[in-house]
Design brief:
Elements: E1 8-20, E2 25-37, E3 41-46, H1 52-59, E4 67-72, E5 75-76, H2 82-85, E6 89-93, H3 104-109, H4 124-136, H5 152-166, E7 170-174, H6 182-199, E8 202-206, H7 210-216, E9 219-224, E10 227-231, H8 233-238, E11 251-254, E12 259-262
Parallel strand pairs: 3-8, 3-9, 6-7, 7-8
Antiparallel strand pairs: 1-2, 1-4, 4-5, 9-10, 11-12
Bound molecules: adenosine-5'-triphosphate.
């Protein structure tokens, strides 16, 4: 057994997230202290509107933090130049896809943009990374298709392939399994699990598939009205973190099965 301490890829200190307008400050969550290590698959769960996307957007610098510090690979997130940041962090948002007219091969190749020169000329290394990303996500038979021809599940795999081609130590995905059937939800989450394990990348994703996340994640972040809990799924089940996620008038969390049950 390898007992070497794992490197911390992302660390937050007293982070507050939310929205600032001229008139008011809307704090969505405060005092967020997280340490995500290399090779970890981390699921982010919570009720609708609790702040999962806000947290992911803040961690990827799409929106500013209200307070606190975010360290990515030992460097403060704020101090990265855009191109450097793109070699450290990739984000997969299903809803925003620049051009569905691109072929799958072209979309995956976009992941190499931070590394190619100003005319976008690809080197051996870029071609190799694109090939690897296509192999590992099993999308070889889709490469010539245009993105508008893909099903939601296929598009999801292609977007993950683009993030893999980007070859960053940290990957974030906002609800990567929305619109998928139960088989393909499990398929995508197992793919993420395998990637984190085999490539030692840190993968953080938001999801409403709480039972799958409990089964597959190394760690989970549970956001609720009172703040958030962070730890291994088993520990979170034991400390009843999932029971406080939703009002208990309709559903109850069953700690034995790790699932929600409808009240009879
Ligand atoms: N651009 C914005 N300006 C102000 N408030 C916002 C903005 N975007 C989201 N919010 C508010 O922030 C809160 C958290 O929203 P967020 O989208 O982060 O939740 P979520 O957990 O991702 O929800 P869901 O599971 O429904 O996707 C909500 O109350 C929402 O209304």
């Amino acid at each position: 057994m390898n007992n070497e301490p794992l490197n911390i890829v992302l660390k937050t200190e007293d982070l507050s997230i939310g929205y600032r307008t001229k008139k008011e400050l809307n704090v969505i969550a405060a005092d967020i202290n997280l340490k995500l290590h290399e090779g970890e698959l981390v699921g982010l769960v919570g009720a609708n509107g609790i702040g999962k996307s806000t947290l992911l957007r803040t961690l990827s610098r799409v929106q500013p933090a209200l307070h606190g510090k975010i360290m990515l690979s030992d460097i403060e997130l704020q101090s990265y130049k855009s191109v450097e940041l793109a070699s450290q962090l990739s984000i997969v948002l299903t809803e925003q896809i620049a051009s569905k007219n691109l072929t799958v091969q072209e979309l995956v190749a976009l992941g190499r943009q931070p590394y190619t020169n100003w005319v976008g000329k690809m080197a051996e290394e870029d071609i190799e990374q694109i090939k690897k990303a296509i192999e590992v996500t099993h999308i070889g038979d889709l490469v010539a298709k245009r993105c508008f021809e893909l099903s939601d599940g296929q598009l999801q795999k292609v977007l993950i392939a683009r993030a893999i081609a980007q070859d960053t130590p940290f990957i974030m995905l906002d609800e990567p399994t929305t619109h998928l059937d139960v088989y393909h939800k499990a398929y995508i989450l197992k793919l993420l699990k395998r990637l984190a394990f085999e490539t030692r990348k840190t993968i953080l994703f938001s999801t409403h598939e709480i039972d799958f996340a409990i089964q597959l994640c190394d760690k989970m972040i549970v956001m609720n009205q009172d703040g958030f809990e962070f730890g291994r799924p088993k520990e979170l089940v034991q400390c009843r973190a999932f029971s406080s996620l939703f009002p208990e008038d309709l559903i109850l969390f069953d700690s034995k099965s790790g699932r929600y049950k409808v009240r009879s």
